[in-house]
Amino acid sequence: xxxxxxxxxxxxxxxxxxxxxxxxxxxxxxxxxxxxxxxxxxxxxxxxxxxxxxxxxxxxxxxxxxxxxxxxxxxxxxxxxxxxxxxxxxxxxxxxxxxxxxxxxxxxxxxxxxxxxxxxxxxxxxxxxxxxxxxxxxxxxxxxxxxxxxxxxxxxxxxxxxxxxxxxxxxxxxxxxxxxxxxxxxxxxxxxxxxxxxxxxxxxxxxxxxxxxxxxxxxxxxxxxxxxxxxxxxxxxxxxxxxxxxxxxxxxxxxxxxxxxxxxxxxxxxxxxxxxxxxxxxxxxxxxxxxxxxxxxxxxxxxxxxxxxxxxxxxxxxxxxxxxxxxxxxxxxxxxxxxxxxxxxxxxxxxxxxxxxxxxxxxxxxxxxxxxxxxxxxxxxxxxxxxxxxxxxxxxxxxxxxxxxxxxxxxxxxxxxxxxxxxxxxx
Length: 427
Hints:
CATH superfamily: Sodium:dicarboxylate symporter
CATH class: Mainly Alpha
Largest sheet: none
Strand content: under 5%
Number of domains: 1
Number of strands: 0
Order of helices and strands: HHHHHHHHHHHHHHHHHHHH
Oligomer: single chain
Helix content: over 70%
CATH topology: Proton glutamate symport protein
């Protein structure tokens, strides 16, 4: 088979898009800011397909598991894994703040525009108690979840439809086959859209560099550095140990998904690579039923990068406001963060709403202090998204191994770059 030229690879094209975006944003900042619609349009195209893709993949994962005991067992293992890893990520964020002290010496003030934005997030947080959160899981109409791209609502609909199809026997299998066809069409649409990733990455990076004067944010550099270090250590140590226990090298896995990580870097969105990640995880030897159940659920229950950010942000704001946490308050913050860590994928401002809800329990931290975070949030969003993608990929392989279904020889061979026998991918 003729090998494709290196310059035709998406990896290279996205890298060029990012580099050009940085150059335009730095040297022609006004032009860089004006290019923002390119990045927004690409992300909007991807978000348009998130609901159908997650719905179809989850339904297929459930329908393909004809053994309901197995379905319940895999689902329980997934939730246990996500709960443990989420707790670890939240603690990592807290420790990063306690060790690095990024907020000490700062003044909890921001620009008038940022203060107004912060007040808006805080007002939204007041409206989101546990009862409203639970009610919010239920879409007002069947298509409502797809219209608003609420991942948890889509997951709920997929679970209900999947279980109903399993109960319907042969007729349900036919319905599942129809969903499978529709899902393949959705994947085909995404493949067309993803070819525009270099343009989206160019526009997003040009806007970011052009809009934000990085030198003026130097006093918040410690926060950004603390977050990056925390995420890197979490990936290398925690995910590295999980990967080793699951029988593969984390570094080889990261190299295997480098194309997807570059797209995430350029677009600041982990959702842009859902279809390709599912295909690649299946290609590594994880059964399609497990991949279809675990990986999409990770976007609701296993946002590792966002979890680290949440607790780090709360303790950073406490330091900036000279607020000392009691041990009881630390425990309360972690418990609330555990609940808040579910959901929020694809929801603009979701991280700020959660942080606002968490600081509302701590006397002495004004909601307007959130304005500090708005200035540097964009610098951290790429790291959050990349950490989320790596974490969900490792989780899918780990649970496949835990279930005893992982093809270890295939996994290790593919990670070494040896394609072996031709594999008929389902997507």
